[in-house]
Design a protein that fits this description.
With 476 residues, this protein is an alpha/beta fold. It is built from 14 helices and twelve strands. Bound molecules: 6-O-phosphono-beta-D-galactopyranose. The site of 6-O-phosphono-beta-D-galactopyranose has 13 residues, from loops.
Amino acid sequence: MSKLPKGFLWGGAVAAHQLEGGSDADGKGVSIADVMTAGANGVDRKITDGVCPGENYPNHEAIDFYHRYHEDVALFAELGLTCFRTSIAWTRIFPNGDETTPNEAGLKFYDDLFDDLLAHGIEPVVTLSHFEMPYHLVKVYGGWRDRRVIDFFTHFAATVFERYQHKVKYWMTFNEINNQNGLNKWAFFTNSGVLLKADEDPEKVLYQVGHYELVASAKAVQIGHAINPAMQIGCMIAVWPTYPASSDPRDVLKAERFAQANYWFSDVHVWGTYPNWLKRYQAKQQFDLDITAADLETLAAGTVDYIGLSYYASGAIKAAANEPANFMTRSADLNVDNPHLQATEWGWPIDPVGLRYSLNWLTDRYHLPLFIVENGMGAPDKVEADGQIHDPYRVDYLKRHIEQLALAVDEDGVDLMGYTPWGVIDLVSAGTGQMEKRYGFIYVDKDDQGRGTLDRSKKDSFYWYQKVIATNGEQL
Ligand code: BGP
């Protein structure tokens, strides 16, 4: 007997900008991902002012899924996927973001993709905004700093809900909306299309753009439910549990503040209201935010149906010697190595038990179904002379996480809808722009310099995951 319920969704996750390529095909506009250059392990990607000649933009071609999706979907079917998580590139539908009429060629692409998936018995799971807003909205409106972007986004959401309502049941609004809590430049740009100015307070920017996004999400939920009440519309948060470095109560309090500061987005998504600590903090800091009474009603009326989450790693934290009374905790403060855990080559601590811990914690806090829509380990792979790819490290990582999610379901009663490991097929890394930080079960012949045939081949992990799905998680 499987520990996981019948109908548990087994899938793989990607985002449009990281695999589609076709960056100017069929009327697509320039997205924020299109102006980010390739970085490397430990080397940041550059954000350029538009597409500049001579730069290397890995997302422009990515793995050319736009032209090869048919053969890739056949591989997903062979793998046995019952769902596939992707995003709709906003710039294929509204190239600049502020048009009123959508681009029919862009809409048609997703019709064809979803039809293809459904014909293979694969349920599409769709994120509306996954690090790929139109660059035009950045230039003209300053990204999510501008309230008008709420209407552009909800118009986009309404257009695709209407069009795909009978093809897509599971939706999410903003991918890893809470990444920007870390106040780092990269997350502000990818989450919100915001380029910070030297003289502004990043915290104030965070709370303002975050508020507009939450209002847009709540409106989208209401619009989607009005179009078709059968559609399930969730949020999507990055879960990165953070443990106190010791049993010193100050460390424990510091870790608790990290959780509060990291999950206020999901608090609002789920509760429809701001948590008290944050209202107090914002008032005391005198941020003077544009939050209207009508917004608060919208938030209350547009709560989500489920929580989508990514889980990769955990952190540990220690209080500073002299924490001020209004101390805050950001991911940049994760200042302690956890001696109980090993890390990936990119320095992400590997913590399978942290997944069970997080699923319990989220269930207790929110009482909603959960959906693990990203999990995995980026690693370089080696192609042997005979063309095989042996990736026991990937199998080991995923196996240990599936064991823990099964315990959370079977022992702890967590309501878990499904599991879609990140990068079912190798794609461009969001963080570094690399190809060789690989997550896939399917290898793509392309390197960090953009060289390769783009041919696909199955890694050992492909056959392993095929068995996992066929036995509903029994044979790991
Ligand atoms: C999440 C993003 C994905 C993704 C993944 C892995 O933050 O939602 O888009 O890429 O992390 O990160 P990376 O690509 O940097 O290895």
